């Protein structure tokens, strides 16, 4: 099963995506997602210039060996660009193996350990009333778990709140990053009001999640977690920038609110302490940014030993290929927690045809061999890449803050 071609396609059907296409001598095509929001071309070049030429001639069935070859063989290890590139190769090889075996990837991973994958959707509002309407719309679709974000009074633009154009939330724009203003005090005062509102309106029969997006200090995060305890959030996500894993000891010592971290992590080493010291409850690493199916399963296996569950990142800035791969992993692991599902802006569905489905709050990857995603390269060519960046944050005094 020799690899005969590996190529990178950068396209923008609704937003920018980087896709790796791997072909074998039998005429099979496997795909992997290599999208790194705002740094797309760096991964495209890493793949095109340094990885694709090494893939041609290799046996596509040697997934672990290829992973180790690209990881250990690079000498310069880890980091988002390298690990996203390795992930794309890994996912494409699992896709190919499934097609050869005539089985969906989750069968290769040990088979379904559950009937469906509970996903959470995103509800938001520029006012709490708008937020309520969005929560209602999600409940009507069957969602059992909903992330809630609302505009913080006194702050011009709040993370997670779309500008009200009816489209899915998509913060990347422009040739230079948009500059937002962040004010911690206003947010810390507002967040308990937000959660209290949702519980008063909808009760305790749904899972409510909230993303802090790396903006607090450990002691602020401890205070937030404690203030939210009466509203029993499913989790608070990314309370602090998590380079400092030990900081979670401080947060943990102040609150029993469950903690979720990991969307910006690239490897098991980024979360080793968080997991082995039981400082978090959910690990949110994604297939695309944490080294593919092979490495993500290793992270989740470590997490399982310490009672930490999965909660993979699933934003619209990972392609439908990533969503499919995530669902295959989610279905098969013992310690699945929840999966984020943001959906994709049109016309992504023209370029990526998927076999996964959503019903009553649960998703399923489908039973097609491989990942169950068909990538239409002709359609992709109709949507050329244009540079776009995530915003940056400045505090009131003009200094930079985490976004
Ligand atoms: C989430 C995330 C995203 C990120 C985005 C950055 O929880 O879904 O925080 O919305 O901001 O993926 O590219
Ligand atoms: Mg997040």
From TrEMBL:
PROSITE patterns found in the cross-reference section: MR_MLE_1 (PS00908), MR_MLE_2 (PS00909)
Alphabetic keyword roster: Lyase
Pfam family, one: MR_MLE_C
Gene3D superfamilies, per the entry: Enolase-like C-terminal domain (3.20.20.120), Enolase-like, N-terminal domain (3.30.390.10)
InterPro entries, alphabetized: D-mannonate_dehydratase-like (IPR034589), DgoD-like (IPR034593), Enolase-like_C_sf (IPR036849), Enolase-like_N (IPR029017), Enolase_C-like (IPR029065), Mandel_Rmase/mucon_lact_enz_CS (IPR018110), Mandelate_racemase_C (IPR013342), Mandelate_racemase_N_dom (IPR013341)
A single GO molecular function term of this UniProt record: mannonate dehydratase activity
Annotated EC: 4.2.1.8
Domain Mandelate racemase/muconate lactonizing enzyme C-terminal per the UniProt entry, residue ranges: 128-258
The keyword Repeat belongs to this UniProt entry's keyword annotation: no
SMART domains listed in its UniProt record: MR_MLE (SM00922)
EC class (word): lyase
NCBIfam families from the UniProt entry: ManoateDhtManD, PRK15072.1
Protein name per its UniProtKB record: Mannonate dehydratase
Biological classification of the source: Bacteria, Bacillati, Actinomycetota, Actinomycetes, Propionibacteriales
């Amino acid at each position: 099963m020799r690899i005969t071609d590996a190529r990178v396609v950068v396209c923008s059907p609704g937003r920018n995506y980087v896709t790796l296409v791997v072909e074998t001598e039998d005429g099979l095509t496997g795909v992997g997602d290599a999208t790194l929001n705002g740094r797309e071309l760096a991964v495209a070049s890493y793949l095109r210039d340094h990885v694709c030429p090494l893939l041609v001639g290799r046996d596509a069935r040697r997934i672990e060996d290829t992973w180790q070859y690209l990881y250990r063989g690079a000498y310069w290890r880890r980091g988002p660009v390298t690990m996203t590139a390795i992930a794309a190769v890994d996912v494409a090889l699992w896709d190919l193996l499934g097609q050869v075996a005539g089985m969906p990837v989750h069968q290769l991973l040990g088979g379904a350990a559950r009937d469906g994958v509970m996903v959470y959707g995103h509800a938001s509002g520029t006012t709490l009333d708008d937020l309520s309407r969005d929560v209602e719309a999600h409940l009507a679709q069957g969602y059992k778990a909903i992330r809630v974000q609302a505009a913080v009074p006194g702050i011009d633009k709040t993370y997670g709140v779309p500008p009200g154009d009816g489209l899915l939330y998509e913060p990347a724009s422009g040739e230079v990053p948009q500059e937002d203003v962040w004010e911690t005090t206003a947010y810390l005062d507002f967040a308990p009001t937000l959660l209290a509102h949702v519980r008063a309106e909808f009760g305790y029969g749904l899972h409510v999640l909230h993303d802090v997006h790396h903006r607090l200090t450990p002691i602020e995060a401890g205070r937030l977690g404690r203030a939210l305890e009466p509203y029993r959030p499913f989790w608070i996500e990314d309370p602090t920038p998590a380079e400092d894993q030990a900081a979670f000891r401080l947060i943990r010592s102040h609150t029993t609110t469950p903690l979720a971290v990991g969307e910006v992590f690239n490897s098991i080493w980024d979360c080793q302490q968080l997991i082995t010291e039981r400082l978090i409850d959910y690990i949110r690493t994604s297939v695309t940014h944490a080294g593919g199916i092979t490495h993500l399963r290793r992270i989740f296996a470590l997490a399982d030993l310490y009672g930490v569950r999965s909660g993979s990142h699933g934003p619209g800035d990972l392609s439908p290929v990533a969503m499919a791969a995530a669902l295959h992993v989610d279905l098969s692991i013992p310690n699945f927690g929840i999966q984020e599902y943001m959906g994709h802006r049109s016309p992504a569905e023209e370029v990526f045809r998927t076999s996964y489905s959503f019903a009553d709050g649960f998703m399923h990857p489908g039973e097609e061999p491989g990942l169950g995603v068909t990538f239409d390269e002709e359609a992709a060519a109709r949507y050329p890449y244009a540079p776009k960046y995530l915003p940056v944050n400045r505090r009131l005094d003009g200094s930079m803050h985490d976004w």
